[in-house]
Amino acid sequence: MLSDWQLHKDYQENLKIKLLLYQKTQRSRLVSLDKSISKLYLLNLDTLLPIVKPLYPNFGRPTKNQQGIIRSLVLMLDLQEYSITNWAKKIKSDKLLFDICGFETQNAPSVASYYDFLTRLWLNSHKQHVERKLKQRQFHPKPKRKLKANQKLPNKRSGIVKRLVNRLIKAKLPRFSPEEILQKFLARCIVDYSLELGLLGNASSISVAFDGSPFYSGASHYGVKVCDCRIKGIYNCKCPRRYSDPDATWGWDSYRERWFFGDTLFNVTASDSPNDLPIYLKTVQASRHDSVTTVFALRDIFELYPNLKFKNFLADGAMDNYPTYELLKHYNMIPFIPIDSRTKAKFDYRHPSISCFDDKGRPICPGGIPYYNWG
Ligand SMILES: [Zn+2]
Asked: Mind listing the pLDDT tens digit for each residue in 247-259?
């Protein structure tokens, strides 16, 4: 079960007292950690309690330090350390870092506590994840075909966006988001606070930009060979293998014009203000078309932020399709999407009986009189 959740103002008070003591002994270090300390001082975890409470059983030994672990992970990334094992050791020996995290216990949590917490946040069976890692898969070499500059991979399954949009309008779109807790964490603890500070722009007409970016996997696309071909002297076999990142696939990085092995990090950004802050993040398969992810992302942002009114929708040519326009009409949003460069319709032709348009956008006849609808 989850033990008591410390109020944010209590954490702030405790931190202030501790920092006063450090000011005498480790002043220069305090100054160098200034930004990281401010980050944690402002990170209010009060609104996270109702989100994480259902993840813990109502009985058993109380789980401690959960807030401390969140702060510790934020601090870890802020100080550019990426190994949880090394970081847990560092926290154990560094009293200042330990105090900044605001742990409840006298001793720093073990490495296992960090992993246990992260497994809990990911709403997917951990056992299944391990099984997927051990399962052997077909080897897919890097695709040879190259695409042109700024060209994107076409949608593999035609008509899929239309089917998904129809399901969404009937509220029957399937739900699969193991990262849901992390999205709520971003929404309630960070985005809501940014909105209060006025960093997102006007809450009653927010403009949002949708786009996916390549997220390179750290794992090797060669996988781990488990066959005995090597002993037989065959080095370039294509036998099934194990992959340490079972979700990673080949995707096309249209900006760098090369294939990449990994996932797509799909972002929704509040684009009204100069800050361009992300309000929604989701990782999807690299081979998935952005127009498919957009349908899910639209549904999710409306559910995550019932207090915001989304007005303008900004996206690239990948989202230029009729079902997306219909969906935006359903949500009462205005699309700003460039027309696909491969489109065959002509826009530069002149109609023989229209000489020009007036300031209201009405066509003018050769006699200089505006046309009237059904006139
Ligand atoms: Zn083999």
From this structure: 899 999 988 888 9
